[in-house]
């Protein structure tokens, strides 16, 4: 029924305006083009104007950013740097020592890295490890490893100390972060009072972990203990803030549902609110653990121990090869912690059936192959 | 035995009048269905009755006591079920009765054995005993709503309020959930309020009907009084013919209502 008048109109059109219909033959809306062309042109002009204005605005913004950046370069002395290419090249040779494999092929001398990593116990402490790995195994030594030497972290040498600082900081900081984060949420504590907790967290965040370490030196001395405490403090500020933000996102429904059961206030907070964010909280905590291990490297640099301290010590001795070996150890440590934490987080968040640990290890080559072929 | 009295309640949100001088009285044990289009005030009425909202004017008395804040003896079921996704059906059911326990014992599930048996009994009432250990997140919409009913039952209520409990369910699950709601209410002798907008389901399950339009009560009567004219009055000029084809057969309790919404040929 609707099809019928169309050919007629097109016919009519062909007779009145041949050139137009030639161009648009076969397309249905041809008759309307001439009717509304003025309006279309007008709209198009308006779009062009808007785009031109926007382009002008962007150009102005870009110019402004360039201008400000030059000022910042001047302030950081990058405009007139005291650059010494010669010393850089000389030190590069120390950072990346070259050896001749089979007396002909020049390549990076990994042997020197590995020998320092072994000599300085960067990744493995044989003193502690001997208790666990010996033939034949000795029950008293295994007992000593776990319960008198507390070897689980120390077996990893300097890396173990760095890892332990990050771990202790996260574990000690977590309960405080939970309390501060929950009480800092406007849904739990009414408006002006929640700022007591938010303000405390802001203050803790304003001071970096490295400075907190300096503050704790009079209390615990310069060492891993004050570093771990400083990281714990830092965790309260950062993790607590993530908890507050997460709690802003919860749905009102379950909270109301728990209210109608006649529950008391702490029960409403726990069942109605915290139960909604449990997985998210665990995920954020693992993320902060990653960050804390990195912070443990930084506070090590000012002398708190672990891999960070080895870096400064070797730098002061101008042993750049050893320093690079330490950086490689740091890289290995951070990558392992991140891999572990990310696998755990994705397992927590996914709704799939969980893989067992054994399948996780044995199925690894096959999964690797399938994802490589994708 | 609860006796429920709504006395001239008005609820305003700014300039919007959501409820306008609504009054009624309900004797204990009735199954009341609240009808009306979206925005007619059904949810506001039920939420005010549960104590989640306080009325601008008027008073609600349940069992002789005014309803000011939520009380354990008035349980509520929600359209979006609002159960805790991360917990098992059993833990969800158990969370209905936490008002009788302290914070630590409810968090660590240290309730006494009889309470835990009651939670399982409530799950049995809604036909989910064997699924008790399943995570709520992995259940279907209908099952989740039934967990919501179980939680409300563990609360040991005298009054059960259900705010569009089947609005987001498919017709089959909707019938199931309404059936469980009805039998639970009968078994435990609960005064039940349920808002609905499926007229056929309403006629099948309700004793008494309260109709709202623009926040005003326009109908209050029992099943025989709920005629096509009343429905027309409530829902305006929609095609109600289909709704009554099987609705007139009412109490048989079959699930063959599907053809009532078949589009007419032209």
UniProtKB/TrEMBL annotation, chain A:
GO function terms (MF aspect): ABC-type phosphonate transporter activity; ATP binding
Keyword terms, alphabetized: Cell membrane, Membrane, Transmembrane, Transmembrane helix, Transport
Main location: membrane
SUPFAM superfamilies assigned to the protein according to its UniProt record, in alphabetical order: MetI-like
Domain of life: Archaea
PROSITE patterns: ABC_TM1, CPSASE_2
Membrane topology term: Multi-pass membrane protein
Residue ranges of the region described as Disordered: 1-33
One annotated Gene Ontology cellular component of this protein: plasma membrane
Cell location: Cell membrane
Ranges of residues in domain ABC transmembrane type-1: 159-341
Cofactor list: Mn(2+)
TM region(s), chain numbering: 55-75, 163-185, 206-233, 268-288, 295-314, 320-340
Pfam families: BPD_transp_1
PANTHER family named among the record's database cross-references: ABC TRANSPORT SYSTEM PERMEASE PROTEIN P69, PHOSPHONATES TRANSPORT SYSTEM PERMEASE PROTEIN
Matching NCBIfam families: PhnE (TIGR01097)
Membership in a protein family: Belongs to the binding-protein-dependent transport system permease family.
Name recorded for this polypeptide: Phosphonate ABC transporter, permease protein PhnE
Gene: phnE
Automatic annotation (TrEMBL), chain B:
CDD domains per the UniProt record, alphabetical: ABC_PhnC_transporter
Gene3D superfamilies xref list: P-loop containing nucleotide triphosphate hydrolases
InterPro entries in alphabetical order: AAA+_ATPase, ABC_transporter-like_ATP-bd, ABC_transporter-like_CS, ABC_transpr_PhnC, MetN_ABC_transporter-like, P-loop_NTPase
One GO CC term, this protein: membrane
Domain spans labelled ABC transporter: 4-239
Entry-linked PANTHER family: AMINO ACID IMPORT ATP-BINDING PROTEIN, PHOSPHONATES IMPORT ATP-BINDING PROTEIN PHNC
Name of protein: Phosphonate ABC transporter ATP-binding protein
Organism, scientific name: Halonotius pteroides
């Amino acid at each position: 029924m609707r099809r019928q008048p169309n050919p007629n109109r097109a016919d009519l059109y062909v007779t009145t305006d041949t050139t137009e219909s030639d161009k648009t033959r076969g397309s249905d809306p041809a008759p309307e083009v001439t009717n509304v062309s003025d309006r279309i042109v007008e709209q198009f002009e308006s779009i062009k104007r808007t785009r031109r204005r926007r382009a002008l605005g962007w150009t102005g913004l870009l110019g402004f950013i360039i201008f400000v950046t030059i000022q910042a370069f001047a302030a950081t002395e990058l405009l007139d740097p005291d650059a010494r290419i010669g010393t850089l090249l000389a030190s590069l040779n120390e950072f990346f020592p070259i050896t001749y494999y089979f007396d002909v092929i020049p390549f990076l001398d990994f042997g020197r890295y590995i020998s320092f990593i072994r000599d300085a116990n960067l990744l493995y402490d044989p003193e502690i490890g001997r208790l666990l790995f010996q033939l034949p195994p000795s029950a008293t030594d295994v007992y000593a490893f776990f319960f008198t030497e507390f070897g689980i972290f120390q077996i990893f040498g300097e890396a173990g100390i760095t890892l332990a600082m990050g771990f202790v900081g996260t574990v000690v900081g977590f309960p405080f972060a939970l309390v501060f984060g929950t009480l800092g949420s406007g849904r739990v504590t009414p408006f002006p009072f929640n700022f007591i907790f938010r303000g405390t967290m802001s203050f803790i965040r304003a001071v970096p972990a490295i400075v907190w370490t300096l503050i704790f030196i009079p209390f615990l001395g310069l060492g891993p203990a004050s570093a771990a405490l400083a990281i714990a403090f830092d965790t309260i500020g950062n993790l607590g803030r993530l908890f507050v933000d997460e709690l802003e996102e919860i749905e009102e429904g379950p909270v109301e549902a728990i209210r109608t059961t006649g529950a008391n206030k702490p029960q409403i907070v726990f069942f109605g609110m915290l139960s909604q964010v449990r997985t998210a909280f665990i995920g954020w905590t693992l993320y902060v653990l990653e960050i804390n291990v990195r912070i443990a490297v930084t506070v090590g640099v000012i002398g708190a121990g672990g891999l960070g301290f080895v870096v400064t010590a070797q730098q002061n001795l101008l042993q750049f090869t050893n320093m690079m070996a330490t950086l490689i150890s740091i890289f290995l440590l951070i990558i392992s912690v991140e891999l572990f934490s990310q696998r755990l987080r994705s397992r927590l968040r996914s709704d799939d059936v969980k893989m067992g640990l054994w399948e996780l290890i044995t199925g690894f080559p096959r999964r690797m192959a399938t994802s490589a072929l994708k | 035995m609860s006796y429920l009295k709504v006395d001239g309640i008005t609820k305003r949100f700014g300039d919007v009048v959501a409820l306008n001088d609504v009054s009624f009285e309900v004797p204990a044990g009735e199954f009341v269905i609240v009808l009306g289009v979206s925005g007619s005030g059904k949810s506001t009425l039920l939420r005010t009755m549960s104590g989640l909202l306080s009325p601008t004017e008027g008073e609600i008395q349940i069992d002789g006591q005014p309803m000011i804040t939520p009380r354990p003896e008035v349980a509520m079921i929600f359209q979006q079920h609002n159960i805790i996704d991360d917990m098992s059906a059993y833990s969800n059911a158990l969370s209905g009765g936490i008002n009788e326990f302290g914070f630590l014992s409810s968090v660590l599930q240290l309730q006494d054995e009889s309470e835990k048996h009651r939670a399982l009994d409530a799950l049995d009432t809604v036909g989910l005993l064997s699924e008790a250990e399943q995570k709520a997140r992995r259940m279907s919409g209908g099952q989740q709503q039934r967990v919501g009913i179980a939680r409300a039952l563990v609360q040991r209520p005298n009054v059960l309020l259900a705010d569009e409990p089947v609005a987001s369910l498919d017709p089959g699950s909707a019938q199931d959930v309404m059936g469980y709601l009805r039998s639970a209410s009968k078994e435990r002798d609960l005064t039940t309020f349920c808002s609905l907008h499926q007229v056929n389901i309403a006629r099948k399950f309700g004793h008494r009907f309260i109709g709202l339009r623009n926040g005003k009560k326009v109908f209050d009567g029992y099943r025989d009084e709920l005629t096509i004219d009343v429905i027309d009055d409530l829902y305006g000029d929609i095609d109600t013919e289909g709704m009554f084809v099987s609705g007139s057969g009412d109490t048989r309790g079959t699930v063959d209502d599907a053809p009532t919404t078949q589009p007419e040929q032209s």
